[in-house]
Amino acid sequence: MAKLYYYYGAMNSSKTANALMTHFNYEEVGQRALLCKTETDSRDGVRKIRSRIGLEMECVLLHELQEMDEEQIRSYDCIIVDEVQFASAQQIDFLSDIVDFMEVPVVCYGLRADFQNKLFPGSERLITIADCIQEIKTVCWCGRKATSNARYNRDGIIRDGEQVVLGANDQYVALCRRHFKLGMLGPNIKKALEEKAEN
User: Fold this and answer.
1) Could you tell me which of 15, 18, 42, 109 has the fewest CB atoms within 10 Å of its CB?
2) Among 64, 83, 194, 198, the one annotated catalytic
3) Where is the domain boundary, 88, 103, 135?
4) Which residues pair with 163 in a beta bridge?
5) Domain for residue 92, yes or no?
6) Is 194 a catalytic residue?
7) Are 20 and 84 in a shared domain?
């Protein structure tokens, strides 16, 4: 029986690497898996999924998946969606329709919360309706479990602004809840910011 899976984690928890490995595992046993992502994520190219460790693959965009006919979608053994937090609630409902009416499993990877610890719309809908929800864990600089995605600049943690600002390690760091509240970015970020200020 097909299911809707949601794997979430803070920044740098290897969500994209896991998505790419899931695709590889399906293909290795002779099954067809389709990689897709939301159009919001354009950091590595419009139709490319790339992990921090250098793995990358071409993909389709979520709105293109929505335009496929049922026969096309049913030809896949699995649909894998990266950066799913940027999906709308309606797009998540569409993914659940693939599971419920086309009997194709859908595996989603993404952030749970934004830089203010507020749920993204796609994440909120998945938490509500996904069959299986699992955290992919990573750690704060202190060694505790990281749960918060802190956005920062040279002045420290940014607390206000647009929900979606694309960036990577140069703008975001995963922190435990305590260090997020205290605004403590950790020694590596602090050192990098100091070096940047000197240049």
Assistant:
1) 42
2) 83
3) 135
4) none
5) yes
6) no
7) yes
